[in-house]
Amino acid sequence: MSTNLTWVKSSYSGTEGGNCIEVASCPSAVHVRDSKDKAGPTLAFSPEAWSAFVSFASEAQAARVE
Questions:
Q1: How far apart are the C-alpha atoms of 29 and 60, rounded to whole Å?
Q2: DSSP per residue over 12-37, as a string?
């Protein structure tokens, strides 16, 4: 994994820590890590798999609100 990734913290992350993730994208993969453990392991997904996950999570959240 490249060390030159630009990590972005989730907009749903609070300031108290907790369950937060950071995401970094590049043309061939979307990388995900725990924001509390920046030196720890990361997951990498294809852009297509990440897009499918985000769509699913968004739809699931909308269904919970209804």
A1: 24
A2: T--SS-SS-EEEEEETTEEEEEETT-
Which two three-digit tokens encode residue 26?
Answer: 């590049």
**pLDDT over 70 at 61, yes or no:** yes
| Buried b / exposed e along 13-40 (16+ C-beta atoms within 10 A) | eeeeeeebbbbbbeeebbbbbebeeeee
Separation CA 30–CA 61 (nearest Å): 21
Q: What is the pLDDT of residues 20-48, one digit of tens each?
A: 889 999 999 999 999 889 899 999 999 99
Q: Residue 46, SS3?
A: coil
Strand arrangement, sheet containing 8-9: 8-9, 21-26, 29-34, 42-45
